[in-house]
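Predict the 3D structure for this chain.
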Amino acid sequence: MTSPHDTTTALHDAALDAGFSGVIRVDAPDAEPFARAYGSADRARGIPMTVDSRCLVASIGKGFTALAVGALIDDGVLALDTPVRPLLGDDLPLVDDAVTVDHLLSHTSGIGDYIDETTGSITDYVIDRPLHELDNTEAFIPVLDGHPQVSTPGERFAYCNSGFVLLALIAERASSVPFHELVQQKVFSPAGMTSSGYPRTDDMPGDLALGYLGDTDDRTNVLHLPVRGNGDGGAATTARDLHSFWAALFAHRIVSERTLRTLTEPLHSVDDEEMRYGRGFWRGWESETVLLEGYDAGVSGRTWHDPVSGVTGTVIANSSEGAWSVLGAIEWS
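Done. Predicted structure below.
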């Protein structure tokens, strides 16, 4: 990746050229943070985005789920080889008995996915259940149910949203702490992420940017997402909090050094993403950069940390495609 100055210049210029709506932040050791907001948090009301606006971040939240599980591993409550079936009981009978926590974290469980990301558009309506019912982890069980196993556990990598909702369910049952509270206790609090959480889409705080399906129209994603996000995504956070997140993570304030290595070690090369994948975290194709990425109706973004240079960056957009033209302005390896 290029120097921090070249990175910020390229990102900023691309944001201006694209009419970007969102927040960019880049932090480098011994340098002032670069933080800029662009566009609108609420188009209809003319409310501008600010550097402290909260945005939904979709699958960036899979990293938070992985770390909540990792913290339970550190606590001895779970292990990578913990089988899922005893914690499921009679629920989700189509999940193979051989599936473990490790399989879910590494997207190798082979379970059927409740969201098919291989067809259609990101703005399609893909959840066939009333969204207002999906406000806690147990409520997702009927959504996860009925999807047959598609491959043998451990056989191959296949990105799976169901796997991370299932991780949230397993973590919740193993710890006896509701998932949202667990992430608050194990991730957000130790990281000092004071503006992060899982807000309801029907009770949105005033500083939460609306997510727009397109780059110019006013249609939002409120009818596309569960009323409250869960293990596969749906957290809201800020660029400032994401910087705090990376700092805390690599200072081992969230999980131990050993668990951090386990979660971030590259296990799979994913050709169509030109990245590698570990357990809840992406890695650069060749570099040591650790990344989280989110893409959903009304949401796009990437946040990253280079442990070699100490540089941390975040680009989050409140539109479905808005982040990609900006991120494409810099080289990734």
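Residues 4-18 form the longest helix (15 residues).
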